[in-house]
Amino acid sequence: MIAILGWLTVIVPIVVTGMSFAYAMSGKGFAFWRYREGVTEIEFIGVLLLFLAAVALIYTVSMAIIQVRKRERLVEQWPTYNPLNQHARNQTVETFMTERFGDADFREHVRNYRVEPDQNLETDQIQDLYAQKKLNEV
Questions:
Q1: Cα 108 to chain center, whole Å?
Q2: pLDDT above 80: residue 84
Q3: What is the spatial distance between Cα 94 and Cα 114, in angstroms, rounded to a whole number?
Q4: Where are the alpha helices (DSSP H) in the chain?
């Protein structure tokens, strides 16, 4: 019942306005109102809605173009993550850590471990390992 009442409050004003506007423009049919201001207001609202539809269309198309270009630029580039290189890097780090701190099983299961001062890592030591490995490969 409430839904029907809600739809009536939407449909009835549209029908009344449409019939009155059609009568004002063609002279045929039934008019609930015959004021020239009503016709002018309907025309104004029509122009306003047309303008807003054009703005929405321009915005939507421009955003679609921007997203397509962004996708082509970012997604379709060469992959930034190479699993083969990552595997080689993991092996390099694992070898380095085994030499410095002991094998992986020991490192993962030891309860307490005291790091000696000469075992501390330099700030860019891992990056230097990667660069050195890359130079050795070339």
A1: 40
A2: no
A3: 19
A4: 2-26, 36-74, 83-101, 104-109, 125-137
Residue 55 has pLDDT above 60, yes or no: yes
Give the structural domain span for 55.
Answer: 44-77
Q: How far apart are CA 87 and CA 95, in angstroms?
A: 12
User: Are 60 and 102 found together in one domain?
Assistant: no
Specify whether 70 is located in the same domain as 110: no
Hey, CA dihedral for 44, 50, 54, 60, is it positive or negative? Answer: positive
Check residue 32 and report its DSSP letter.
Answer: S
Q: Are 23 and 29 in contact (CB under 8 A)?
A: yes
Whether residue 18 is found in the same domain as residue 55: no
Residue 56 lies in a domain: yes
Is residue 39 situated within a structural domain? no
pLDDT at 43 over 70: yes
User: Does the pTM of the predicted model rise above 0.70?
Assistant: no
Q: Which two tokens stand for residue 108?
A: 């993962």
